[in-house]
Amino acid sequence: MRRSICYTEPKVILAGQTGNWKFTYAAANSLPKGTKLLFDLLSRGKEIEWQIPQTNLKTKENLIWLELSDKSKIAAQPIENLVHLTFQYEFILPSEVKTGENLTICMGSPIEDNAEKAGNRSQCYSKRRRAFHLYVDPKGKGDYKDPEVFGVDVKGNELHVIRIITPSLITKNARFDILVRFEDAFGNLTGIAPEDTLIELSYAQLRENLNWKLFVPETGFISLPNLYFNEIGLYHLQLCNQKNKKIFYSSPIICTQEESRSIFWGLLHGESDRFDAVEQIESCLRYFRDDYAMQFYGVSPFEVEESPSNDHWKSMGNYVHEFNEDDRFSAFLGFQWEGDSAEEGIKHILYHKDSKLLLRKKDTKNNHIKKVYKSHTSKELQGIPCFTMAKGAHFDFSHFEHEHEHVVEIYNAWGSSECLEKEGNPKPIKITSKGEKKGFSETADGSIRNALNRNCRFGFVAGGLDDRGVYSGLYESNQVQYTPGLTAIIAANHTRDALFQALQQRSCFATTGERIIVDFKIAEKPMGSEISTKSKPGLAYNRYITGYVAGTKQLKEILIIRNGLPFKIFHPKESYFAFTLDDNEPLSSIALTSPDNDRPPFIYYYLRAIQEDEHIAWGSPIWVDHSAYVHTPSIKKSKKVKNAKQDGN
Questions:
Q1: Nearest Cα to 262, choosing from 253, 273, 249, 271?
Q2: 162 touches 56 (CB < 8 A)
Q3: Given strand 381-386, what is the order of strands in its sheet?
Q4: Is the peptide bond before 10 cis (omega within 30 degrees of 0)?
Q5: What is the spatial distance between Cα 606 and Cα 593, in angstroms, rounded to a whole number?
Q6: Is the pTM higher than 0.85?
Q7: Is there a contact between 35 and 124 (Cβ–Cβ < 8 Å)?
Q8: HEC profile for 542-610?
Q9: CA 228, 231, 234, 237 torsion: positive or negative?
């Protein structure tokens, strides 16, 4: 029995390559005049997706057309794809196409010699057997059945960047491994480099006879085991491309004398711009684990009516269970809850285990976040308030739940909820045009600083990009978009249990995507701690503050916030800065009154660091309770607080 034939030219395409692509179809049976063909690029219209072509045959660049065996051209009719908000392309045959004759769908430039400049651009990420669909309706009624499938392999382009994946915190003389990724301009692994390319690995305090020379492997990555540092301090591994003398550095590595905890990087809320985090959950998890080198990831679909379906939810739970592996990758199951604005806001419900039900709001027992918390202990799930300053989807913290809400998302790719823009927020939630109907502006009701001033106690995490639920449509609007964030969890070991417990202890910090290391302590107590004058009476008169920031680029500003106001500002001129200072203002004169009269007056501190490249890190707060007093007046803004000290270094 004769079958239809589908083949592509070329069969292998480089990511982001511009050229001419041909999809040739030979039908098993003759196609009568009036036959309709529908070609689907399966593109979602994003910047990294396959470029959407034009259809006017007079156009000489980025064109799509159908070419018959006699070389005549047929224009495409764009048909809106309501699923992906892009286009499919329909062709109508002007005459019969006999069995064995070829139909070729072409994308690119009609002028062959101009293909590299005026052709069609491929997608910017590598993918094996990238599919294109062709639907054929011989009756010409638009009744399309199962598609014919074309496939091409999209591979990484020429070597552009070398990325070095290292641990952030290690112990002196302890062995560790690193991963070196050779990437193109779009972050894909690649082995395409001149044959004589040689990479030299080095770092400060390395013995000369241990300098390593590396070739670019065909796989695009190489693992280097059993490295160690025999001196404490700050390190940056360095790779130099001997061919073009370009130098690439790792993120900072802190080597300590003896460290019982490590820093683990990942994302609790966010999705991939390459893979759908529901329908392609396996590819999504693999991408964050392998390509993005994360150490943990949480799935976070929005619970909206019947989405995700029960089958999708079951599949997500199965893959979370499969990918969760101690000492390699911790996977969390969760979903996003959208409740009434102000009272509930947006919550990311994070489960401790992976075999949990999706809580549907249509069920009476789950129709309010209070009911969800009441039916689950804090050991079973955590609620993470997100996007709290987005007007219309905000959370005003009046119903903040201390038992279940241990951390708050201070930042995601759509902005920071730290404070108002006029109060110094460098990444505000905002729309660039006033007449824009879609999108969010900021509201002080959801300010994290205001919540901290009311004695809500939580650590800081960061979210990634998201275009689901309340975020849908923001890509197409004038909403300001920033880089996806990263969360750092400081834990004793790399297991899901340890990371979940560390979040409950607020042992974490947030960044705008770079692996900036933050350490912040008061009286030797780490971020997320609650200290009391009852156990340390001297805190009533002096708070000894220490810390450091190890940036990936030169630091521009380190700001110590006390009770929502700048207390100390440093202006380093280097990528690493350590500090010590004393706050010797009497606690009784600066303490905030807790709204709950059963709790003592308090003060809190947290750290914010900004690099020259505008990337930011936020350290989780530390609280000091003035337990000797039952009640104190509201904060008195001392001259010292109003006019924060400026220190240059």
A1: 253
A2: no
A3: 334-338, 346-351, 381-386
A4: yes
A5: 18
A6: yes
A7: no
A8: CEEEEEEEECCCCEEEEEEEECCEEEEEEECCCCEEEEEEEECCCHHHHCECCCCCCCCCEEEEEEEEE
A9: negative
Dihedral sign from CA coordinates of 141, 147, 153, 156: positive
SS3 123: coil
Average pLDDT value over all residues in the chain? 91
User: Hey, how many other C-beta atoms are within 10 angstroms of the C-beta on 398?
Assistant: 12
Burial status of residue 205 (CB atoms within 10 A of its CB: 0-12, 13-18, 19 or more): exposed
Q: For 499, what's the count of Cα atoms within 13 Å in the CB-facing half-sphere? A: 31
Tokens representing residue 337 in the block:
């809850």
For residue 587, which of 636, 521, 622 has the smallest C-alpha distance?
636
**Coil, strand or helix at 426:** coil
Cα separation, 273 vs 45, whole angstroms: 11
List, in sequence order, every beta strand (DSSP E) within 63-123: 63-67, 73-75, 77-81, 86-92, 102-108, 120-121
Cα gap 153→126, rounded to integer Å: 8
Long-range Cβ contacts of 632-639 (<8 Å, 24+ apart):
632/588, 632/591, 632/593, 632/601, 633/593, 634/592, 634/593, 635/563, 635/590, 635/591, 635/592, 636/589, 636/590, 637/565, 638/585, 638/589, 638/590
Cα-only R_g, the chain: 28
149-205 pLDDT, tens digit each:
999 999 999 999 999 999 999 999 999 999 999 999 999 999 999 988 999 888 755
**Which amino acid is located at 268 in the chain?**
L
Give the amino acid at 646.
Answer: Q
Kindly tell me the burial class for residue 107, based on how many C-beta atoms sit within 10 Å of its own C-beta (0-12, 13-18, 19 or more).
buried
Given a contact cutoff of 8 angstroms between Cβ atoms, the answer to whether 181 and 239 are in contact is no
Helix (H) or strand (E) holding 640: helix 639-642
In three-state secondary structure terms, 66 is strand
